[in-house]
From TrEMBL:
<feature type="transmembrane region" description="Helical">
    <location>
        <begin position="101"/>
        <end position="120"/>
    </location>
</feature>
<dbReference type="GO" id="GO:0022904">
    <property type="term" value="P:respiratory electron transport chain"/>
</dbReference>
<dbReference type="InterPro" id="IPR036374">
    <property type="entry name" value="OxRdtase_Mopterin-bd_sf"/>
</dbReference>
<keyword id="KW-0812">Transmembrane</keyword>
<keyword id="KW-1133">Transmembrane helix</keyword>
<feature type="domain" description="Oxidoreductase molybdopterin-binding">
    <location>
        <begin position="220"/>
        <end position="346"/>
    </location>
</feature>
<feature type="transmembrane region" description="Helical">
    <location>
        <begin position="171"/>
        <end position="191"/>
    </location>
</feature>
<dbReference type="Pfam" id="PF00174">
    <property type="entry name" value="Oxidored_molyb"/>
</dbReference>
<dbReference type="InterPro" id="IPR000572">
    <property type="entry name" value="OxRdtase_Mopterin-bd_dom"/>
</dbReference>
<dbReference type="InterPro" id="IPR016174">
    <property type="entry name" value="Di-haem_cyt_TM"/>
</dbReference>
<dbReference type="GO" id="GO:0016020">
    <property type="term" value="C:membrane"/>
</dbReference>
<feature type="transmembrane region" description="Helical">
    <location>
        <begin position="58"/>
        <end position="80"/>
    </location>
</feature>
<feature type="transmembrane region" description="Helical">
    <location>
        <begin position="132"/>
        <end position="150"/>
    </location>
</feature>
<protein>
    <submittedName>
        <fullName>Molybdopterin-binding protein</fullName>
    </submittedName>
</protein>
<feature type="transmembrane region" description="Helical">
    <location>
        <begin position="16"/>
        <end position="38"/>
    </location>
</feature>
<keyword id="KW-0472">Membrane</keyword>
Amino acid sequence: MRFRSAAHHEKATSRIGLWLGIAFLTCFVTGLISHAIQHPPSWFFWPSRPVNLYRVTQGVHVISGVAAIPLLPAKLWSVYPKLFERPLVKSVPHALERGSILVLSGAAFFELATGILNVGQNYLWSFYFPDAHHAVAWVAVGSILVHIAVKLPSVRRDPLPDPSRRAFLRTTWLASGVAVVATAGVTVPFLRDVSLLAWRSGRGLPVNRTAAAAGVTRDPSWTLEVAGKHFTLAQLNMMPQTTAELPIACVEGWSQSASWTGVPVADLLTAAGARPGEAVRVHSMEREGLYRTSTLPGEHTSDPLTLLALRCDGEVLDLDHGYPCRIIAPSRPGVSQTKWVNRLEVL
């Protein structure tokens, strides 16, 4: 069986594969950063400045994943005639090529499908998404590197002369660009009015987990424990306050800035007789959930913009936004900006 369409030409396949590889490798590196911030190994360091650093890296992570969605079916459409080649294996490089395509296809579909479902908070599986997504990402990138090594001679050949092949590539590139523009408004503010498919990009500050879902209610007897010392809400309100424009940057890719007012964590630690710059475990009134605690590294506890926030945009925190207080720190994932805080434990 012969396939004569320009879309199936080796040069078109190689060019789309190159774009797909760039998108996946960008997504992989920024995903590793996000995973390390949330589950830091002992050697890992993440700065607190610039304040929008995580917002940028996670935005690039999701946008590069979205860009890969049109590229993947275009790549598979371009190579599917290889299923009909005979003999099935011609040489060791040919076997590596076919094996890498099989592994890459499965891993890529898993990464993109679960990533998009995670963006929409549709968890149609029983496994823990971050660990599975992280593990399969290594499989996908490994297969990409093998595939690139085998196909590099094709990628480096002369530019495409055939207009029909160029048209196929332009269409693929346009589809990927449209997908990015249609969704990038979740991270890029000036695109919000044109990103028709952007999620959680309204003017208000989004809420991923409500107080009702977390089982948290207002407690008149609430106090905050910091290194063994207790502070009432009235005492916190009497302490010197700092106001800062800081973003909530979610692992799902959306981000939104707000004006936060509260007590710097460094001042709280000093008032409790502890030393700023020590790592602190933040505890929430939420009784269940994977993110009811978080750890603030010393880089953040010494930063004057790491706040125990009491107000948002000049108003007392809404219960869904973490009343009576929550952590807001620069360059941190939203899941680590713990709400309904009741204890800061110095580690």
